[in-house]
Amino acid sequence: MNVLITGGAGFIGSHVAVRLLTRGDSVVILDDFNDRYDPRLKEARIAHMFEDGKKPVVVRGDIRDRELVEKTMMEHKIDSVIHLAAWASVQPSIDNPYIYSDVNVNGTVVILEAARKAGVSRIVAASSSSVYGGITEFPFREDMNIMHPISPYAATKASTELMCATWNNLYGIPTTCLRFFTVYGPWGRPEMAIFAFTKAIIAGETIKMRGKETMRDFTYIDDIVQGVIGALDHANGYHVYNLGESDGVPLPRMISALESALGKKATIEEVPLPSGDIPKTLSDITRAKVDLGYRPSTNIEEGTKKFVEWYHEWHDRIFTQTKLD
Ligand SMILES: NC(=O)c1ccc[n+]([C@@H]2O[C@H](COP(=O)([O-])OP(=O)(O)OC[C@H]3O[C@@H](n4cnc5c(N)ncnc54)[C@H](O)[C@@H]3O)[C@@H](O)[C@H]2O)c1
């Protein structure tokens, strides 16, 4: 396949790129390397692919640039699109809703229109567990009514799904939206809890636990990649799938797992969960198991151990050295 991965310098996109290149697909990455978080990490993910002999085509640009997106799809004869580029994270979307709606909604429309014009035969797009918003029935199932978003970010992800459904209805391109549940692992995003807590615990700083009742279905990156590839390979019609671990992990359990992996106790300050964040997420993954052969297999204890190993090996190389050796 000739696969375009939007947001391919990002956390999930870079892992998906490596998996596709390993199995022999051609990969084009479109990413603007923006500074929502430290772009050195994005550069390092790409540099690491090349060091490892994986050679994607890297196009630096914005998914809202219609001409560039159309040219990229045509020039590289793209037949499959994995659309992951977005502004992620709940809290910043409350402070800056415009960039979220612009990139996540308008950018998605650009991708869908360009895919139609380029004759793309399948699309996989990133949604999020945040679309479940104020729902208090667990686990979250794909057929629940998601019209109760509690953050601009969640609303943009629900809109992504609506746009994908609309384009599928109009033009019939097989399209799958994946609701990712709190993804973590090596090369993860620095502002997410597992990364930020690891850094703080090592530095002996206090970590802020947003409610000890808060529960997240933390999902290990390798499991997510398996689900994304499964969705790509099983494309037909329009579908929405939860990709989670189906394990509701209270924050204290995640912190204990990190403490064991780091061999160091955390100093914890409990603070209230900010508005916009969901108190509890838990996925029902029956649909993805049946249709995509999705089989997540990494619990939080194993996953944090792997993350901490990566952190020790890479953090300083990425963030304190200007050039990778
Ligand atoms: N990581 C998670 O826990 C999680 C959970 C739910 C949903 N998601 C969704 O999965 C997708 C990937 O998430 P991630 O964790 O890898 O995030 P990420 O921020 O690491 O990756 C997104 C990438 O998109 C790029 N990008 C953003 N705006 C762009 C634009 N206008 N043009 C081109 N590139 C642009 C960024 O530079 C970044 O490299 C996102 O759509 C996100 O909303 C992630």
UniProtKB/TrEMBL annotation:
Residues 4-306 form the NAD(P)-binding domain. It holds the Pfam family GDP_Man_Dehyd. Keywords: NAD. It comes from the Bacteria. The keyword NAD applies. SUPFAM superfamilies: NAD(P)-binding Rossmann-fold domains. InterPro entries: NAD(P)-bd_dom, NAD(P)-bd_dom_sf. Coiled coil: none annotated. PANTHER family: EPIMERASE-RELATED. This is NAD(P)-binding domain-containing protein. It comes from Candidatus Andersenbacteria bacterium RIFCSPHIGHO2_12_FULL_45_11. The lineage of its organism: Bacteria, Candidatus Anderseniibacteriota.
